[in-house]
Amino acid sequence: MTAASQWLHATTGRIATDPYSWMQAVHWIHGSGLYTNPHNDGPKTLNTTTIAVAQEIAALKECRPSIAYLARKVKLSPRSVKYHLRMLRETGLLVYRSKGTRIAGVGGRASEFERTIPVVFDEALGIRTVGEGVQRRPVGIAEKGRKAIGKLAKKAARKTRRPRRRTPVSSGTRCTPMQVGTSGTSSAGSTHSPSESKLASGTRKSPTEKSSKRGPRKLNKVGRRYQLARELIQMVPWLHNASVPRVAWIVRHVADAGWTALEVQAAAELFIAEREPRRPSAVLAWRLRGAHTLFNTPERRQVAVEQWQDSRRAEKARHTEPALIPAQQGPRSAAARREWDQAFAALREQLTPAAETTDVDLMPTALEDLSREEIIAARLDGMRDPEVVLSAISLLGERDARRLYTSRLVDQALALHTINARNTVLTPAF
Fold first, then answer.
1. Which of 114, 120, 212, 366 could link 354 by a cystine bridge, Cβ 3.0 to 4.6 Å?
2. Cα–Cα distance between 101 and 104 in angstroms, integer?
3. DSSP 22-58
4. Are the C-beta atoms of residues 153 and 24 closer than 8 Å to each other?
5. Cβ neighbours of residue 152 closer than 8 Å, sequence gap 6 or more
6. What is the distance of C-alpha 373 from the center of its chain?
7. For 89, which DSSP code?
8. 167 or 60, which is more confident
9. How confident is the model at residue 305 (pLDDT cuts 50, 70, 90)?
């Protein structure tokens, strides 16, 4: 039967009413010799192995045998099982109801067959059927086929086993048991030991010496991606819960370009957008998009790393500068407190005339008269004690205080003053 006729809707045979009747048809096809394999591979005709495969198929309630199941039951290779299934289909004993497929994520699905009896079997034995198509049913048999159907019934009831393969012990001569007095010659008499000059001294080195120490394995492209992903997950704090395969896929471009983990971290943390995804791996993909084309040389990557390190140092300095010291502390020792009061009094005396005048042009002149050392000392005092900045705001005004102490110190002082005012707790009267 051709490949197009090996389907249930295209076959000319009929569905077997029971597995027993189907095995009778299998044995008849096997003994008739009508089938010859037209292919160059596989067995030439149906044999006992084909019958053993058919018996396993007949024992199934649903005719959906997988290749692995049949190979395990009959102890064959999957390729051999495919050969015998093909012969059963080409003889019309099996037809497809649905063909197996391979679905990604689900796995392979076995083909579903239908056990059928070909028309040539009914014609040869004189079996009469009623109905149409594959739903035909047998209702009688001719007298000439009764004896043949009886022999097929005995074969179908008997379990067929595959013959054991006989392999020789060795390709050479077989060993014979020791015999006494059966031969006048001994095989041991013809043997002789080699001379001492031909024996190996053991001092000669082998031309193909094996190295006792193997060097480090060289990673391929995929291994380099996974190595870079593991280093990033260990180095970057916000990537600790990320998946290694996902990060390896994200950094595939930069890993192929030879980036290091420090360069990837610098490129990912140098430019931070306002709105970013929440998942750590998505954040990394968002920040690294197009980075391998922007920093395409080692020099550009080194400049990016230096800028990122400078920004990190500046951020650390902002978190550790004295402006974050509470305003109530001030200088701890009495001597430092006296020097601080004297410096602040001198600065107040110098700035008071400029603050009391009504001429707008005198204020810039009074601030510009201060030397560089005095301005630095004033700003250091403002960093140590925000109350100094608040006092300068009340004396000079916010505009000139910002000119003297910078807007950052003024904003910090005002923020601390607001926080202290909110945290004030009133003592209850009862």
1. 366
2. 10
3. HHHHHHHHHHH------SSSS-SS--HHHHHHHHHHH
4. yes
5. 24, 27, 28
6. 62
7. H
8. 60
9. confident
